[in-house]
Specification:
alpha+beta; globular; Ubiquitin-like_dom; about 20% helix
Length: about 100
């Protein structure tokens, strides 16, 4: 059995957990953002669906689901922040508020 490749996830409530991703370097290099989101939902059952979940690594949002993690510079034992995508964003003009 080979080395176990993991990442650390800082969850929505500040809880940090280590998530096991795969057993080989080849699998780790081909792991996508979408596959990581699936692993996060398995580890944190109360996590919302794919649309409501945002991942941040070194101040960069992992916004392309089919992009490999290695293209973002994610390595074994990297820390990834999980944040929720909130609805809204409508800009109100001063005339609408008054």
């Amino acid at each position: 059995m080979g080395k176990l490749y993991c990442v650390n996830i800082c969850g929505i409530r500040g809880v940090v957990k280590s998530i096991d991703l795969c057993n080989t370097e080849e699998q780790f290099k081909s792991m996508t953002v979408e596959q990581l989101k699936d692993k996060i939902r398995q580890t944190f059952p109360a996590t919302p669906g794919k649309k409501g979940l945002r991942l941040i690594f070194t101040n960069k949002m992992l916004d392309e689901d089919f992009k490999p993690l290695c293209e973002y510079g994610i390595q074994h034992m990297s820390f990834i922040q999980v944040v929720l995508r909130l609805p809204g964003g409508r800009c109100l003009h001063v005339e609408e508020v008054i």
